[in-house]
Amino acid sequence: MSSKHNNSGNNKKTTHQKNPAVTGSAISKPSAVASRENPAVKSNTQTNANSAVYKAPVDSSLECNMAKPLPATATPQQRRAAFALACIQKLAGEWKEDTKKQKEFNSYASAMPFMIHANGLGQTAAFYRRKGTDHTYYRLYTLLGYWLSQVDQPFAGKADLLDGITQSDMDTYLAAQTEAMLFLDWVKKLASAFLARDEDPAQ
Q1: Do residues 78 and 183 make contact, with C-beta atoms less than 8 angstroms apart?
Q2: Residues near 92 by beta carbon (within 8 Å), at least 6 away in sequence
Q3: Nearest CA to 151 among 45, 34, 76?
Q4: Cβ-based neighbours of 99, under 8 Å, separated by 6 or more
Q5: Most buried of 58, 113, 118, 202, CB within 10 angstroms?
Q6: 103: buried, middle or exposed (CB in 10 Å: 19+, 13-18, 0-12)?
Q7: 141: closest CA among 119, 122, 168?
Q8: What is the gyration radius of the CA atoms in the chain, in angstroms?
Q9: In this predicted structure, which of 9-13, 22-26, 40-44, 144-148 has the lowest mean pLDDT?
Q10: Average pLDDT in the 99-128 region?
Q11: Confidence (pLDDT) at 69
């Protein structure tokens, strides 16, 4: 006669631990908020965006540095203006005796937003880059690339503008295009204030 075996000791319920890597609770609250506010900015970017020294560009001799760091309460518009001002003032010193370069920069800075609006950021960047590194167009290309590569910007870590454009998804690209238009508005205003420009025919 076969005896019954009590298997109650072997019938323990198996509990499955949740993998924190795939649960929503694993996402920290600040990261979740940051991704909602600006999906183009990576949640692991925690570096202070108001640092006085910015990320080294492709050609470090063209890098723009602000004299003083901005306060933590600085608005996006203040950050755009401060960065543009540092770059324009550097160009004004470099081109002090070259009014032709200054006038060219003013003209191209005014045209760039219209080109972006009509053709998109990618085609405009390619046009400004193809002129070569010695051309005034290239200075605008690099200036915009430096700004969009800052830690709180869509192309963070990609100092070359075309690298950022070609290596990003559509949401990031569109965020960069919008930011480019906002930033170039300050570039235009400050270039007109600090660099020589073509005389008004009415004067």
Answers
A1: no
A2: 102, 194, 195
A3: 45
A4: 196
A5: 113
A6: middle
A7: 122
A8: 25
A9: 22-26
A10: 95
A11: 82
pTM > 0.85 = no
Q: What is the mean pLDDT of residues 37-50?
A: 40
Model confidence over 13-23: pLDDT tens digits? 444 444 433 33
Cα separation of 194 and 185, whole Å? 15
What mean pLDDT is predicted for residues 164-177? 96
CA distance 76 to 35: 17
Asked if 90 and 175 count as a contact pair (C-beta separation under 8 A), the reply is no
Domain edges within the chain = 80-203
Predicted pLDDT of residue 66: 66
Integer Cα distance of 26 and 132 in angstroms: 47
The matching CATH number, chosen from 3.30.420.40, 1.10.520.30, 3.90.960.10, 3.40.50.300, for 80-203 is 1.10.520.30
Averaged confidence pLDDT in the chain: 76
The 10 Å Cβ neighbour count of residue 192 is: 14
Q: What is the DSSP string of 101-146?
A: HHHHHHHHHHHHHHHHHHH-HHHHHHHHHTT-TTSHHHHHHHHHHH
